[in-house]
Amino acid sequence: MNYIDGFERTVRCYGGETALVTASGAERTYAELDRESTGLANAVHERIPERRCATLALNGIETVVSMLAGQKRGRGNVQLPYRAGVDELVRMVDDADVGALLFDDANADLALDVAERADLDLAIHAGDASLAGGRVVSYDEFVGAAATERVVERADTNEYGVFYTSGTTSRPKAVSFDQESMWLGATQVVMEMSLEPTDVALVTTPWYHMVTADAWILPHLLTGATLVIQPTFEPEEALELVAAHDVTGMLAVPTQLNVLADRQADLGLDIDTLDYIRTGGAVVSARLVERAAEHLTENVYNSYGMTEGGPNLAYAHPEVQDEHTGTVGKESYAWELRVVDSVPPDEDPDPEAVVEPGGTGEILARCDGMCDGYLNNPEAEEDLFVDGWLRTHDVADVDEDGYLYIVDRVDNMILSGGENVYPQEVEQTLLEHDEVEDVGVVGLDDEHWGEVVAAVVSTSGDIGADELDQFCVDHGSLANFKRPRRYVVTTDELPRTDTGTLERSTVEEKYFSAVRDGGTQAEGENTT
Length: 528
Prior knowledge:
Blueprint: H1 3-14, E1 18-22, E2 27-29, H2 30-47, E3 52-56, H3 61-73, E4 77-79, H4 86-95, E5 98-104, H5 108-117, E6 122-126, E7 136-138, H6 139-144, E8 159-166, E9 172-178, H7 179-193, E10 200-203, H8 210-223, E11 226-229, H9 235-245, E12 249-251, H10 254-267, E13 276-280, H11 286-295, E14 300-306, E15 310-316, E16 330-331, E17 336-340, E18 360-366, E19 373-374, H12 378-382, E20 385-386, E21 389-398, E22 404-409, E23 414-416, E24 419-421, H13 423-430, E25 438-446, E26 450-458, H14 465-475, E27 486-490, H15 504-516
Parallel strand pairs: 1-11, 3-4, 3-5, 4-8, 5-6, 6-7, 10-11, 10-12, 12-13, 13-14, 26-27
Antiparallel strand pairs: 1-2, 8-9, 9-19, 14-15, 15-16, 17-18, 18-21, 20-21, 21-22, 23-24, 25-26
């Protein structure tokens, strides 16, 4: 079964019910959402029948429409991260053979820069600003002129779409999924969380993330629930939306949960309808669960996933949080997980070397809901699977009851505010500064963000933290959340092995131990 088959069943059953509500008050019923997505599918197919459409926009009605339209026309939508730099985005759209770019007012300048440099046939503007002309067309006019009752022609593919993520090379990789995988992922969420048509779910996390799409938007649309859409996360507005729309569920990363609990403690809004929260992407502490229970809801689901495997590999249901604090739970429906002896990233783990309860190792996973692979990247794809198992690169502890606890990334990924940051990408950017001789980047624990990016810069020149941060801003290829928040500038030669590998643990201990222990050793700090 394909996801779009499930959505069409929802339209038949709940066509007159509200599917989407935005923070500004715009609404769509399921029947209206169906017609609008069909119109976009037909309009795009008429202009670029053999190419994909990408979307660069904040959370909104048009982003959901584009997700459905890509499936209807058989050429999946490319979900672009609006926090990426223009250089990254141009590489993404060209790599995915994107012929049309749908964008909103908030991303207009960025989208027009991409359109100038990428191989696009047209740009579709969904917004109020006056931008029509040249290759730019109005979304309303573009969709309004197309047939909306049925898809006129469908490509001979089963694509859902393309998600982009950073990989071991520190360059974004295109992860492709088919519609059957997305249907299975959405169905897993419906089963794990017992979603109902009467649910009202708040969308606050960026739609382009796999977890927002396949663990939140698509499952709720599959059941006939209502989605309340916030363009970007703002805690007070999020709580007001919960109160105003009788929201029953929300998705929030741990950093957001902390802020929401703090704001609700101050505001005391009537959010009694809030029944469940799904979280993940960072450690869920006992204190966080307690604060969420006190100020938000007792029903917190901790979960584990990844772009290549989907967001639903494992679940920790609310009832296990007390005895297994911090766990991501056990394998989800239809998934098989193994924790095996860890090996370096450039070696293949043995799927048969399963660790005993109480042990630590790398998670391997398999399920029909796995990705189809990397788009146009066969070399990276060879490293993605081991004897039919998806390699996660995540290291986990397994307790005596079989619950999993994420320890670290095999390749030292930094998780800052739920976003993935790879040290090498930051290092490569800073090394382009004329005065920088060497760089070491590590992640430091942070109460607000989970982790923050910290950099040690070796130089014989006269540069400081402010200049380095401005260089990252001006560079254009480094997304804002990847910029270091703490710097140490030194004349020291950074510690490396005899093969040239940076000794990150030594860097962290030598230069940031005082910061880690509550001191102020870092020579310069970026707080923007």
